[in-house]
Amino acid sequence: MDLSLGEEILIVLREYGPLTAEEIANYLRRDIREVNEELQYLELDRFVTKVKKGVFRRREAYELTPTGLEEALKAYEKLRAKSQELINKINSLSPEELEELMNQFSSIIPLLLLLNLIPLELLMLLGLDMLLIGPMVIHDH
């Protein structure tokens, strides 16, 4: 199950916005060029709008519009349901089945961890903490 990059961006903006394109790319561990391209589409669809961020060094950032917030909520619920499905399946699988399941969910695991929708401890117990290679920023709410 994959979320689209647009859905991932909307979720991150809902949780941590307004954010610059670079910040979004870092949160999602994505290439800045593909994030910028997707942000252009989200802006055309009127899901995000540009704002200025920062006091001394003003940078262009993105925040959700009311329509974007609605879409972000839908995407978050979709992601939350998938995280519960993943957690429920993990404990009953053989190592081979677990590896296959993790491959199916590999693109959204960083987002699940970022939003605390899957316990990091669970992945560590299963020896799957190698999925955390690369920058990861986790905020407490």
Q: What does this protein structure show overall?
A:
The structure is a single chain. With 141 residues, the protein is mostly helical. The chain has one domain (5-132): Orthogonal Bundle (Arc Repressor Mutant, subunit A). Helices cover 57% and strands 9% of the residues. It has helices at 5-16, 21-28, 32-44, 66-90, 95-105, 109-114, 120-125; strands at 48-53, 59-64. The chain has a two-stranded antiparallel ribbon with strand order 1-2. The longest helix has 25 residues, at 66-90.
H/E element order: HHHEEHHHH
**Side-by-side strand order of the widest sheet:** 1-2
Taken together, the total number of domains comes to 1
Work out the strand percent: 5-15%
CATH classification class = Mainly Alpha
User: In the CATH hierarchy, what is the superfamily?
Assistant: Winged helix-like DNA-binding domain superfamily/Winged helix DNA-binding domain
- The residue fraction in helices comes out at 55-70%
Quaternary assembly: single chain
CATH topology: Arc Repressor Mutant, subunit A
Largest sheet descriptor: 2 strands, antiparallel
Distance between the termini: 26 Å
Determine the structural class based on helices, strands and strand pairing.
mainly alpha
Strand and helix map with partners:
Elements (H helix, E strand, L loop, with lengths): L4 H12 L4 H8 L3 H13 L3 E6 L5 E6 L1 H25 L4 H11 L3 H6 L5 H6 L16
Antiparallel strand pairs: 1-2
Helix pairs in contact: 1-4, 2-3
